[in-house]
């Protein structure tokens, strides 16, 4: 995540959507956790490191109308955007989250499998500073990562694995863990990757 977007541009230019290990036809765990926050349809939601995820499609179907989708790869964002109506209420942001300066604040921060690419403490700190500035008081953060017994790398990059305790410690006292959830993601070719999702509330 902290590097230039060339690697991710290459991934999305060379593979079909369903050829990536992280592909989900419907991101059910994310949708359930978003519902658990009680967010209304006018809640401001950002999906960080979204790639071409179909979460935005599902949120639009549910009536959400203040959605921001952020990723390093412009190609990935174009893939997602091409599925939607031209006037869909979505802001598309091609940026590195570590240096992002959002124009507004959010009720809900969602990240499935971006934070775990940050293996350096300085990058993790930068990410968390951006998240903290972006979230309103009592806002929610959903962070999905590989579990401690999940893969040690993804797309040739090392990753950091977390459970609820490790993620809570990393986020610090400004965030209360609301729910800790283990999940087995099945890739398009049938292998299983162990994930952890943490739902947090900003204190």
UniProtKB/TrEMBL annotation:
First and last residue of the signal peptide: none
Stored SUPFAM superfamilies: S-adenosyl-L-methionine-dependent methyltransferases
Metal-binding keyword on record: no
Classification via InterPro entries: Methyltransf_25, SAM-dependent_MTases_sf
Gene3D superfamilies per the UniProt record, alphabetical: Vaccinia Virus protein VP39
GO terms assigned for molecular function: methyltransferase activity
Source species, domain of life: Bacteria
UniProt keyword list: Methyltransferase, Transferase
Keyword Endoplasmic reticulum: no
Domain Methyltransferase: 45-139
Gene Ontology biological-process annotations: methylation
One Pfam family per UniProt: Methyltransf_25
Protein name: Class I SAM-dependent methyltransferase
């Amino acid at each position: 995540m902290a590097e230039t977007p060339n690697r991710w541009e290459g991934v999305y230019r060379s593979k079909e959507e369903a050829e990536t290990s992280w592909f989900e036809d419907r991101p059910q765990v994310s949708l359930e956790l978003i519902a658990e926050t009680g967010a209304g349809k006018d809640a401001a939601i950002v999906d960080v490191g979204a790639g071409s995820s179909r979460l935005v499609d599902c949120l639009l179907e549910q009536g959400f109308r203040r959605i921001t989708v952020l990723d390093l790869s412009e190609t990935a964002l174009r893939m997602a955007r091409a599925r939607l109506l031209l006037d869909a209420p979505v802001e598309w942001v091609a940026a590195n989250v570590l240096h992002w300066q959002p124009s507004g604040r959010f009720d809900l921060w969602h990240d499935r499998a971006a934070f775990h690419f940050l293996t350096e403490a300085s990058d993790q700190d930068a990410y968390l500073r951006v998240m903290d500035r972006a979230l309103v008081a009592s806002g929610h953060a959903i962070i999905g990562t590989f579990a401690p017994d999940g893969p040690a790398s993804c797309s040739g990059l090392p990753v950091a694995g977390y459970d609820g305790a490790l993620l809570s410690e990393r986020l610090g006292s400004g965030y209360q863990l609301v729910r800790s959830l283990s999940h087995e993601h099945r890739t398009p070719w049938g292998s299983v990757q162990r994930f952890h999702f943490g739902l947090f509330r900003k204190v």
